[in-house]
Write a structure and sequence with these properties.
Elements (H helix, E strand, L loop, with lengths): L3 E7 L15 H5 L7 H17 L3 E5 L7 H6 L9 H8 L10 E4 L9 E5 L6 H4 L2 H11 L6 E4 L14 E4 L8 E6 L12 H10 L7 E5 L2 H5 L9 E4 L2 E5 L6 H11 L4 E5 L6 H7 L5 E3 L7 E5 H4 L2 H12 L6 E5 L2 H4 L9 E6 L12 H14 L12 H17 L6
Parallel strand pairs: 1-2, 4-5, 7-8, 10-11, 13-14
Antiparallel strand pairs: 1-15, 3-4, 6-7, 9-10, 12-13
Helix pairs in contact: 2-14, 14-15
């Protein structure tokens, strides 16, 4: 089978809750303390995957991590029962669902050894995310165990924050052709933290053995981070020749686009001007946190969340773009409201890996029948709702651990 782009979605875990842990993530801050609906959240994610399968796209998934994170609490000298509420909330987060932050992936055509390289993200900026990488690495090593095709790397040292593919873009004529890899880092975010450090990305580019002449490091604009774009994928997304971005996404837009066009003359740059869609509307609607994909019919498709349809400036921009036969030929709308309320849109929920699906461990690949089976486990075992005030409840903790075990058993992944 040829190299193709596979979207690996994070299955939403049974402890999905709104504890308000991510400072600078406006949706998560706004919804702190609300009651969450893990079962509905996971089913929404599964329906998104199903819609992608029906578009003819290759689909995989990664499974929820063990929560509470007992080993992390033990390293801090405590237990789920005894931890103070803040530490406990940090140990109960289902944040590994946002697979765009799992790793940075350089497809085989870009690397010197012709293998697809993955570096798991250290996610060191936020405590609740900083303990994800061990569980993620374990899964990536299993899913991409075939060393003839993949090289899976541990995280870069925590001196430098790394948030993975959420800050990474790749331009190429076709996924199986060499591309230009663009690494977007933050320096300052005004009142909010810049989570991606340039040194982390420089290390990844070296480890992945990329051609320095086809690699760009680009600074995210401070105003975007300050407006709530804690990751670049909240203000820009790329697929093949198309770069779709908000006017205010990058610190030095002119310099960046000039260099990119030199390296990649086929670039099709689609900009949304601030005069038509404000940064605020772009971030509230997650217009750019969309999946930009090329299904087998060749029509570039943007998969947006419902919130994009509900934001008038955004929806009318999209309708105009479609009417004018712009680079985006089709818009699909998905309901991922439970994830959105924590700042995670359609693009956050997936990690893109260019690979021959036949070289991936089949246990991590999805088709409609398997999605049905996963949905049945979720419907049976996932908590219906969680009030963040109850995160210490022994009954809830038991339910969450049992639910995950039931899913892993269904998927023949109980070793995780
Ligand atoms: O890291 N939310 C995630 C959302 C990640 C979105 N990912 C991308 N843009 N690629 C984050 O801020 C919510 C935390 C809470 O439980 O309060 C949270 O972690």
């Amino acid at each position: 089978m040829p190299l193709t782009e596979i979207n690996f979605d994070g299955i939403v875990g049974p402890s999905h809750n709104y504890a308000g842990l991510s400072f600078g993530n406006l949706a998560a801050m706004r919804n702190a303390g609300q009651v969450s609906h893990p079962r509905a959240a996971a089913l929404q994610g599964l329906e998104k995957m199903r819609a992608n399968v029906r578009l003819g796209l290759a689909q995989g998934f990664i499974v929820p991590q063990a929560r509470p994170a007992r080993e992390w609490l033990a390293a801090l000298g405590t237990t789920p029962e005894e931890a103070d509420p803040v530490l406990r909330a940090n140990a109960m987060s289902a944040s590994s669902m946002w697979a765009a932050n799992a790793a940075t992936v350089s497809p085989a055509p870009d690397t010197a050894d012709g293998r697809t390289h993955l570096t798991v993200a250290n996610l060191r900026t936020m405590p609740h995310r900083s303990h994800e990488w061990q569980g993620t690495l374990q899964q990536l090593k299993l899913a991409f165990a075939d060393e003839r095709h993949f090289a899976v790397h541990g995280p870069v040292p925590p001196a430098f924050g790394d948030e993975g593919a959420a800050n990474f873009m790749r331009l190429t004529t076709r996924h199986d052709q060499p591309g230009v890899e663009v690494f977007v880092y933050g320096v300052s975010g005004g009142p909010y933290p810049a989570r991606q450090h340039v040194e982390a990305f420089r290390a990844i580019a070296r480890r992945h053995r990329l051609n320095p002449e086809r690699t760009l490091f680009v600074q995210q604009s401070e105003e975007a981070i300050a407006a709530g774009a804690f990751h670049n994928d909240v203000v820009a997304v790329a697929n093949e020749r198309v770069l779709f971005a908000h006017e205010q996404a990058f610190a030095d837009k002119g310099g960046f686009l000039g260099r990119l066009e030199q390296l990649f003359p086929e670039l099709d740059y689609v900009e949304v001007p601030a005069s038509e869609v404000s940064l605020e509307d772009a971030i509230r609607s997650y217009l750019f946190n969309a999946q930009l994909v090329t299904p087998p019919d060749g029509r570039t498709t943007l998969i947006v969340p419902e919130e994009a349809r509900e934001t008038p400036s955004v929806w009318s921009w999209l309708q105009r773009h479609l009417a004018e036969n712009g680079a985006i030929r089709r818009v699909e709308v998905v309901d991922v409201r439970q994830s959105m309320a924590n700042g995670g849109g359609p693009a956050c929920l997936r990690l893109r890996v260019v690979a021959d699906p036949g070289t991936v461990d089949p246990r991590f690949m999805a088709d409609e029948a398997k999605l049905d089976n996963i949905a049945a486990v979720v419907a049976r075992s996932w908590p219906e709702q969680i009030d963040p005030a109850d995160l210490g409840s022994p009954v809830l903790i038991q339910d969450v651990e049992r639910a995950r075990a039931a899913l892993l058993e269904e998927l023949d992944l109980s070793s995780l």
